[in-house]
Write the structure tokens for this entry.
Amino acid sequence: VNKQVVTFGELMLRLEPPGFARLTQTNSLNMTFGGAEANVAVSLANYGNPCSYISKFPSNSLGTAAVNSLRQLGVDTGQVLWGGDRIGIYYTENGAAQRAPVVLYDRANSAIAQIKPGEINWSEIFHGKNWFHFTGITPALGEGPAAVTLEAVTTAKNMGLTVSCDFNYRSKLWSVEAAGPVMTELLNYVDVAIGIGEMEAEQILGFSVNDHGVGDCSSRFRALAETLLQKFKFSHVATTQRNGYSASDNGWSAMLYDGKDFYQSPEYNIHMVDRVGSGDAFCGSLLYALLQEYTPQKSIDFAAAASCLKHSIQGDYNHVTLAEVEALMAGDGSGRIRR
Amino acid sequence: VNKQVVTFGELMLRLEPPGFARLTQTNSLNMTFGGAEANVAVSLANYGNPCSYISKFPSNSLGTAAVNSLRQLGVDTGQVLWGGDRIGIYYTENGAAQRAPVVLYDRANSAIAQIKPGEINWSEIFHGKNWFHFTGITPALGEGPAAVTLEAVTTAKNMGLTVSCDFNYRSKLWSVEAAGPVMTELLNYVDVAIGIGEMEAEQILGFSVNDHGVGDCSSRFRALAETLLQKFKFSHVATTQRNGYSASDNGWSAMLYDGKDFYQSPEYNIHMVDRVGSGDAFCGSLLYALLQEYTPQKSIDFAAAASCLKHSIQGDYNHVTLAEVEALMAGDGSGRIRR
Amino acid sequence: VNKQVVTFGELMLRLEPPGFARLTQTNSLNMTFGGAEANVAVSLANYGNPCSYISKFPSNSLGTAAVNSLRQLGVDTGQVLWGGDRIGIYYTENGAAQRAPVVLYDRANSAIAQIKPGEINWSEIFHGKNWFHFTGITPALGEGPAAVTLEAVTTAKNMGLTVSCDFNYRSKLWSVEAAGPVMTELLNYVDVAIGIGEMEAEQILGFSVNDHGVGDCSSRFRALAETLLQKFKFSHVATTQRNGYSASDNGWSAMLYDGKDFYQSPEYNIHMVDRVGSGDAFCGSLLYALLQEYTPQKSIDFAAAASCLKHSIQGDYNHVTLAEVEALMAGDGSGRIRR
Amino acid sequence: VNKQVVTFGELMLRLEPPGFARLTQTNSLNMTFGGAEANVAVSLANYGNPCSYISKFPSNSLGTAAVNSLRQLGVDTGQVLWGGDRIGIYYTENGAAQRAPVVLYDRANSAIAQIKPGEINWSEIFHGKNWFHFTGITPALGEGPAAVTLEAVTTAKNMGLTVSCDFNYRSKLWSVEAAGPVMTELLNYVDVAIGIGEMEAEQILGFSVNDHGVGDCSSRFRALAETLLQKFKFSHVATTQRNGYSASDNGWSAMLYDGKDFYQSPEYNIHMVDRVGSGDAFCGSLLYALLQEYTPQKSIDFAAAASCLKHSIQGDYNHVTLAEVEALMAGDGSGRIRR
Amino acid sequence: VNKQVVTFGELMLRLEPPGFARLTQTNSLNMTFGGAEANVAVSLANYGNPCSYISKFPSNSLGTAAVNSLRQLGVDTGQVLWGGDRIGIYYTENGAAQRAPVVLYDRANSAIAQIKPGEINWSEIFHGKNWFHFTGITPALGEGPAAVTLEAVTTAKNMGLTVSCDFNYRSKLWSVEAAGPVMTELLNYVDVAIGIGEMEAEQILGFSVNDHGVGDCSSRFRALAETLLQKFKFSHVATTQRNGYSASDNGWSAMLYDGKDFYQSPEYNIHMVDRVGSGDAFCGSLLYALLQEYTPQKSIDFAAAASCLKHSIQGDYNHVTLAEVEALMAGDGSGRIRR
Amino acid sequence: VNKQVVTFGELMLRLEPPGFARLTQTNSLNMTFGGAEANVAVSLANYGNPCSYISKFPSNSLGTAAVNSLRQLGVDTGQVLWGGDRIGIYYTENGAAQRAPVVLYDRANSAIAQIKPGEINWSEIFHGKNWFHFTGITPALGEGPAAVTLEAVTTAKNMGLTVSCDFNYRSKLWSVEAAGPVMTELLNYVDVAIGIGEMEAEQILGFSVNDHGVGDCSSRFRALAETLLQKFKFSHVATTQRNGYSASDNGWSAMLYDGKDFYQSPEYNIHMVDRVGSGDAFCGSLLYALLQEYTPQKSIDFAAAASCLKHSIQGDYNHVTLAEVEALMAGDGSGRIRR
């Protein structure tokens, strides 16, 4: 049977010029929604695993449209809070060739950024649930969200849920100095840690990583993971590896450490449609694999293949089918027509 | 020769679903810009009268796109300020039949709302200029904008500019109690007062209007104008009159009082394309007429015909030609093809 | 507290050229979904009343997209069946002036049309529910759907649910001769009967209506309702009245008989955006009113105002807010901007 | 059996901003094709009457696209000439309310405007054909087109074809002085004369029309028709009557004189989609009616109803079905959905 | 002189989300038409070779639009049949990177699938024609289409036409067991056989292919062709070779055997726009080359270059010019601007 | 401080099917504006360097829209001339893979092509300006434009401006024989010469280039530059080098000779969005670099990186930011998201 997941964070309005146009060239914007934790929820619901999303939305038609975008894909939004002033926005421009994609945030003072401790009844929300997922973006939104995230992880742990975290450090939201103690405290409650690289370990979490930058990326990942486990009680450490040849072409692979062994996925060469949300598709797919109790190797292969395919999907949300992921895991990346 | 006009206020990003879709139904938004004072500037530039626009924009591609939208139509933006956090946004939904159009604001904390006294060098800006126009929206944005508006009108008056104001009370931005003293002080410097109705006079400015609601609209407008002139030194008082039969069909006319006589335009029956910005087109066209030193009757007829035609134009900005206004003033509303 | 409603029928893919283009003029089609019973479910969910939708969908991405369109708007689709060959389609062309809108069906052999008795576990579905709504379209889809509809109404009645029916005779699906016995049997289980006109009563149900076509429409509706109650045990009889001045402009009103008194709504003159689904918005809104235990007059006024407003909405689904309906009921059809 | 029609003239690229946008507001243009004579050909082919179109097109992809647009709708283009420098263009802006639609021509130096006498083998083209239709636009394109038109009408007459002409005076192409002798000579060969009004008769053809402007439009049309028949040998004289209430709403009717009696259609009140090409739809539909040997009353009713419906169609080309015309002739302009 | 070709099959409505969107992500669909045999007809007409298309279409606006799409490009549709219930549909999703394109069929019960023997007068159709082309899709549509295809090939052979067949086995339409005897019988009448690979030869046609899968693709193709010629009287055997590196990038080449010698085209590396219909562009271009009596090497080079270029064209239909094909055959694939 | 630049030439309406569609496949066209000299002006204004554009535009809404497109991006258009018959047009089709992009001109008889000597007051225009830029396209438009260009360069030289020229030979506008003497005379006044290759030097300018085609492209460029300096007094000679692997992928680099040394940029491998205008972006960026007094190596690196990035921008106009150019010059072409 599936296990019930809860995610918590900010869902933003995503506005984007069509094609390769810049914001100074367009008179229309594609309108979708996205946010790291909601994207994870969509990935799980997309594969058929029940998932609830917790956030706070303004009581207007944009808040409704945001929630509708999740309901449409099967995410349970029955417990979101309503209130606050506005929905956060992010604008994107598609990159191409040597021109990088651009993300422009207008998220200050959003409903969720203004949340206060005590507003969310975590005990009620976690009742009957198995897993809680958050990211490092939510505590960066402000003191309120940071405190509420801490409420969430402590309650989750007390109630026996597995807790996962995608580190996702965002320098525009807070400094490494501000992030350090907050993230360190939160990570004490985390079982599955995703996306902690050498920079994050050293500059934010204060580790001294041996031979930083020496060796190939897999041996360095293993060293880093072992270092992290000296302090934290992670059951799993995972990350992705992107090689940016250009905005149009990337290499992509992933690695997992389960405290005993190290597992690495194949590397995929990807011709880009939309890279935003690919890391979240990786998280959501890894959670799905772990909930399905796949072997570690199959888990990291599943998450890597799924997130590889996500690069071919427009928008934050993962619309890749299980069958497509399994076909790619089985080696078929030939792009033959599926009639 | 043309006379140089300066306007000052907030230019917002305007986002709107195509056709008659609601925000909960769309996956794209038409992207334009609009704001009461900028719309007035565009009207003037559109007719060939030089006009400068003063505001503050964030230093990002949305701020650039906003300024570009004015430069494109010939408005001088060479003295705008750059800085602040964000550009204000408003979302609109087209109305139809009995369903009213909707405007949803997300304008708090915009760059211009955060402006502080002293940031704008009004003496330099007004050098060589003849006319300053503002609206009641700008002082409603906050204490900073209110103070800067007061700087503007006092400097303008000192430097001999004509000052015009479109009252534009917005209940979502401030209460009648808050608006009262601020607007009263500003109106002391105003020559041309537009858009003060019985509600505004009584509830905000504290007048006692004789026989409120009694008589036809023209006699009531005359009574109101005479009352206002007991306190303020307006050279002209003008207003428009909208009869809302439905969201699709409106009646539209305008009235002018020049301290001596009362002038009324024909009433137009309008099948609606976009009513947002029509009042601003009226203001801009009235300013143009007064700058051209049209007779009072021709002035109000010009402004009424131009703003009637604006209802057939998509977006905030007035794209109606002088020739089209003149044809309608001459009585041709038949819609014959202009080949 | 809200009462739980269940609807059952066919949800079709709706494909439509943009604007006023014909199918022979376009190279793109707007893609939405619609169906009489699903439209009723959306109306209820839109107002916040829980509603489940029961149907059968093919296990492909079009079936998923159809179900998603309902989930998005809060309709519970957790008990739909999956299987069958295809989703039904209908093509529409917008009408204008003297040119009528066109609906072209391609719905034969859809998954729901191929359903067989016993496939749906009505006892389980109706557990804890209060109301069942169906239309005369579903039994017209074939013997299987007719039999399943009969299963539904008999089970519903046995379990104490209120049953409502929108008659919706479709001559392209079956003859009056075929429809007669099927509809007569189904109507025996109906409490709230909607959309039975003189034609349906005489030609399908075999009544002899006194003075058919004599008198004004309200006295004729009363006579018809009284006639129907001689045979059926309807608690309520309701209908709408459309006056087609052209494809662009219609008159619209509604009438209700509660077995004792006759209630009539105001008539609205409507400038058209999309008339498809307006009758369903009437049904859904009437059900909402009855579930809210509004007075009969308020009920018919609510349903008439809501369905009037639906004519301004693109697509089958009702996106009109409660506040908008209440404003129109209170007399405001002026189309003033809601800022 | 159908009778074969030949039309001759200029087909232009038609470029138009979407919706109600102006050319200064858009970044895309809808691309269709249109021209008075081609529009007539499309009307005939649309009803199933064989029709050939003769013109000259540049040998590039725009010329091909233009010809394809006619082939698509069943017009025979097998005898068009290829060569010359460019295709003529016209830009349109949709009008609304008091704002008139705009047509902006860029047609000078088109392939057909540069045609020379002798380039077209009219004897071969008219072989086996029954009817030739031209308009007053073609001879206005230049001396070459005027001479080729004269070749066409003299050859047509010699070979026994019926000849029809839509007068279509365009002041931007030539003066009344220039048009006078050319049109007078051409009209000597015409059987069915369409669109000659009092202005054309007096100022271009040099008639003295009794009581110009006196009486209702039908008595004036009769007087005009009788005057024309004193000089020309027209078998039929026909015209349309447009009452421009605004760009959004028009009155529309038509009149026919067959040398003996006068026939008038009903007047239609039309809510506008696109009026360009409506006169051509009238011509094409009148030709169809005469070829079908309808009675005069039915002929003018058919042509009036068809061209009324054309106002609801986007683009120059008539996409109205015979069944729709017949339904409107039978009195159904209610806009009921055709399911 | 050109030689007249006839093709016969099913033309479907093709519906496709814009860009890289999935069917679950879109609210509009691009609308075109396509079908293997119609695509071949379009290729021939596109190069200027007369071609007739035979099929059956429903008498509604979709049937008309389908036929119009062929008329537009110069295909003769004067002898298509009208009737039946519906037009077949196929939905596509664009692939990208490792995500394969998807084709979803909804073609059962189409007008052509319901055709019965005797409905088409092949003798009349083939009168004056030189070549008949069909594919293995048509007999797979059902017993009626299979029987009508057999009528076609026997009549064609009797009347001296060359017959070509693109094998096109579709496993969703019939099993290899069902296909075997039908295709074997039809191939007895075929001169030019395209698209028979080792799988088709062994599993459907029952050949034992020596050393299946051994050797390079050209030596294996020669072995296969020689094997086929032991049983069938093919004058030419041809096939294409696709190497699927991903959905975005493919290798593409082609081979021809004329009973004596083996000819191979260059291989092209293709960055994909739309691969659907490329095989049909190969067929149509090969037929054109053979009708032009190009040498075998030039024929296979022409067909390979043309179908390579088709991958850069949106939609099923080939819009590549002869000049473009010849430029690529001459070695210019540099993509220099053609000004 | 920035130095004021003047450019002079033709700005055309650019019409382009969306995506990869051909002109025979589309029913809408993207509408932008472009022209070699205007594109240079936009590049300069885009980087913040003041630039005036001189041309002549028809007094209609297309002329206005063209000028607006430049004003929008900060180009000074205050001195353009108004008059003439039409605006020139060019149609483009996007290329892909082996299919080359297409440019189809319809520019004859444009307002600027009809300009006569004496119409432009160059002394007034050049007052206070530092640099004049033209291209070889303008003198090719006709005798009038050629004479006016000569007026410009002689006046510019007399007034002490630096003069730059992009050679831009267009064979569709004039022959090498016609271009020879005109370009030779103009080049006598040029300081910075761009885009003269071996073909131009030999066939148009009549040089004998040693070892034409021998050696690598950099040694050949040096040889060519030295040869040119034997006759002309160029301070700088620059060119770009494009390697066309396909329409989708190009190599791109640039070279500069300052009379003493030779400088070469890195080569970029570019995945294409839109290559039209890239050469103009190179010119504009090189002018900017020289005006900023960058070193020669930095100048050519800046111009090469900027024009590389322009390939990722839709439309003629350069929308690349200084920060993006500098990041690429610093080696970051990885396409990492700029958040």
In short: Chain B touches chain E at residues 27 (CB under 8 Å). Residues 286 and 303 of chain B are 5 Å apart (CA to CA).
